[in-house]
Amino acid sequence: MPPKRGENTKKIAGNAKKAAEEAEEWDKGVKSNAKKEAAEAKKRNAAAKKAAAAAALAEEEAALPSKPKPMKTGPAERTGVIDSALGSLSVSNVDDALDALTLATGAGKNTIDKHPERRLKAAHAAYEERRLPEVREEHKGLRRGSMKQLIWKEFKKSEENPFNRVGKVRYNTTKDEIALAKKAEMDKIEARLGGK
Fold it and tell me: Fewest 10 Å CB contacts: which of 1, 54, 101, 170?
């Protein structure tokens, strides 16, 4: 038999450490409340931050000057306003009536076109479809491509081209510039209809 060597000290130290950890686990018990307590503390901190932010917002709003609240009008009141506005304007066709109604209600949504490029392709296709038979009759010797070029040149100058319509603004126009453009368009409509 081979001679006995000394005991492995590393193994003994590891076993002792493992036994101490197991004893500590048994002392804690089966269920630990540490996670639950940490979650509750996190919720309390979040609630405190939210309350502080709400208080700061309320304080900031109180410091701002108050805005006048818009008056709510019923259908009968609006009808009276529209009737009085239409009475002062001379309206001779449906388009003028729609413009007058726009003036009376103050809803100038359609007077400003921020993105005419979105409507260009469809408007050109409709114009070309309508105009192609007429151009075929006028210029019988031209090829189809040449006819389309002629129609495109006409379309560029046409009122049907969204880029030639009234109220066109740049895509990056600010709200103030849009408001000024809307006011200018409304003033033009009012002057045309005889409101001033």
Answer: 1
Q: What pTM, to 2 d.p., does this model score?
A: 0.37
Return contacts of 57-63, CB within 8 angstroms, 24+ apart: none
Q: What is the DSSP letter of 93?
A: S
What is the sign of the dihedral through the CA atoms of 166, 171, 175 and 177?
negative
**Bridge partner list, 168:** 113
Q: How far apart are CA 100 and CA 106, in angstroms?
A: 10
Sign of CA dihedral 59, 61, 65, 68: negative
Task: Give residue for tokens 């509750």.
Answer: 40
Q: What is the pLDDT of residues 144-173, one digit of tens each?
A: 999 999 999 999 998 888 887 766 666 667
